[in-house]
Each structure stands twice: as C-alpha cells, then as structure tokens.
Amino acid sequence: MTTRDRSDACPGAVQTHRAADGQLARVRVPGGLLSAAQVQVLAGSAVELADGALELTSRGNLQLRGLAPDAPAELARRLFGAGLLPSEAHETARNVVASVLSGRSGGLLDVRPLVRAFDAGLVADPALAELPGRFLVTVDDGRGDVTGLGGDVGLHAVAADAVALTLAGTDSGLRAAPADAHTLALDAARAFLAERTAQGSQAWRLAELTDGVGAVAVRLAGHPVPGDRPAPGTGPVVGATEQVDGLVALVGLVPLGRLTAPALDVLVQVTAALGSEIQVTPWRSVVVPDLPDEFVDDVATALHHAGLVFDAASPWAQVTACAGLPGCAKSRADVRADAAHAVATGTLPVAGPQHWAGCERRCGRPAGSTDVLAVEDGYRIGAG
C-alpha cells in the first residue's frame, strides 16, 4: 500500500500547473477521440495561446505548454465552446482511455458508446468530481490494448454481448451487457471513493488502498475478486490499417509526443475536408481514420513531412522523454534535444524502449522502458 500525505494535484485545463516555461494545461480527451471542430480549436489554441504545439500524454490526453498567466481563462472559454470542458468540477477526473480504432478495425465490440455514456454519467454526478487526477478508467473492446495499461476501473469486452469489470487490471468476475456496462464502471468509481473515505486515505489509485481491489469488489458484489487478469494486448500498429468498411486508418507516431504546428495544420485540413475525427493514443501516436484509399498516400506524405513517423522500425518507436529543460526547472538536462540528437546520429544508448528523464521523478515513463536518467555529469543508464 502507498501512503499519500496530500491530495492529488494533477493539472487540468482550469487547474493549470506553473512550469518553468509558463503555465501548463492538460486537456482530458475521454477515449482520445476529437472531432474536426475540436482539432481546429486545439490547434488554434496551441499556436495563439501556448508554445505552438500539443503534447500527447501517456493517457491519451493533451497538454499545452508556455501559456501566459492570463491565457488559461481564454483557453477554458474555447474548450467549453468546443465541448472539451463539460464540467470544470470534473475536468481532472475525466481520465478515460479506450481501445484504438474500436468499431473500425478489430475488437469484439465498438466501445465508443460506452466511453460517451461513462463520461456523461461521470459529469452528471457531483460526487465523482472527487476522483483523483491519477485515477484511470480503461474501456477495452477485447483486444487487451488498454486493459494492459493497468487502469483502476476498467471495462473489458469478453463477447459481443458481455463486458467484464476489471479492478486494477484484475477481473472482478462481474459482467454487464454493453448497454449497462458504463453504470457498473460508475458504481466501481463510487465504491473506490467510499472505501478511500472508510480507510481515511488520500490514495490516488485503487491499488494504494489496503486490499483495495477486494474491498471495492465486496462493496459492489459482496464477494472478493477471483484474481484473473485479461491477457494484455499491444498498442496500435504504426502505418496503414484497413477498416471493416473498406476505408483506411493511418496511425502515425509522434516523436517525443509533440504535435507541432505543421502537423496540426495538416490534421486541421484533413479532418475539415473529410468531416472526420482523429484519435490520440496513450502510445503518443495519432490515428487518422476513415480515409478513402485514394487519399491515403497524400495524407501520409503530408504528415510525414510535418514530422510524424509511419515506420514501425524507426528508432523513434523506442524513445520517450519527459519535458526536460527549459520547460521543467527540476530537470538537469534538455533531454528532448539530447534524445533527438541520439536518434539522428544513431547513438541511442540502449536497444529497445527507453525513457529519457531529467530527474528521478521520471515523468511520463512508460512501463517496461529502460531509464536514461540525466545526472550531473551526463546520463545514467538503467537507473532504478
């Protein structure tokens, strides 16, 4: 059990964080899905109010850096108008990741309606505004991609007509029909808050409570969980994927998770022209779905020239990094610039997934990555 001595202080779009390069805002995007109009608002806000880029987080959310002190109010106004800020009270609680390309390619069930129903139920319940900003909900269509991220509460399709409730990645044994699954997840989130209060805890995650999984399961069903874990899947394959309707989805890796102005311009143009949406993923990639075959090459070329990567063998597929200098005063190095130099010169210090971090907090570190940790005289590899 982890003991917390303070409430979670994750940044949001209203509750911003003061960083070395200005205010930082985090915009929650349940399921990672953004309409054409929302893409346009976010792109405009990044260029006009922030440092010109959108950052992708490991939970499929978006960050704007370098905001001036008076910019958050204008940002909130724009987000509200675009439907990205349905409740100021709940904004930091809306951490919901969903299977990539659900309903378009793969999976047992289209989980997009579950995401929308859960988010609406969350916002409608004042009590759920108390969920910590680190609390994560996963909605998995059966492929195992987001269940494997270890959400506190999860829905995992086990058949086209049955959804399992997971708690800290463990199957609770409880099942619901797709139309009722969001209600079960909402009840589990309420049970977490009730158990946290009962234990006198300020826990941010379910696993931080004493026997949190079992205690929440008992609150829901009167019995402990069986303890099985659904088989984990992997993130989306970089490149082109054919959809069940014959259209094509492009999955582009975003180096260091920064969507810069040129890439944002392309995404705005493509989504506006097609009236489509995009999906941002916890693997710091962007999905452009519903492309007619004749548009695929042109869109891929434009996004590639704007910095996105469509080659799964690229070294960028192995590299993540925290903000580093100059954005974070705690960092010992400009880790993004150093990581980019190592990729460009073929001098990455290790093979396989690696996370470059400016200090021991290792912000944004994906599970399974080797640490490339900045120290006073360079970098230490594999630091614990």
Automatic annotation (TrEMBL):
- This protein's source sits in the domain of life called Bacteria
Q: What is its EC number?
A: 1.14.13.83
Is Iron-sulfur one of the keywords UniProt gives this record? yes
User: What's one Pfam family here?
Assistant: NIR_SIR_ferr
Entry's Gene Ontology molecular function annotations: precorrin-3B synthase activity
Enumerate the UniProt keywords alphabetically.
4Fe-4S, Heme, Iron, Iron-sulfur, Metal-binding, Oxidoreductase
InterPro entries per the record?
Cbl_synth_CobG-like, NIR_SIR_4Fe-4S, NiRdtase/SiRdtase_haem-b_fer, Nit/Sulf_reduc_fer-like_dom_sf, NO2/SO3_Rdtase_4Fe4S_sf
Which residue range or ranges hold the Nitrite/Sulfite reductase ferredoxin-like domain? 20-79, 243-304
Name of protein: Precorrin-3B synthase
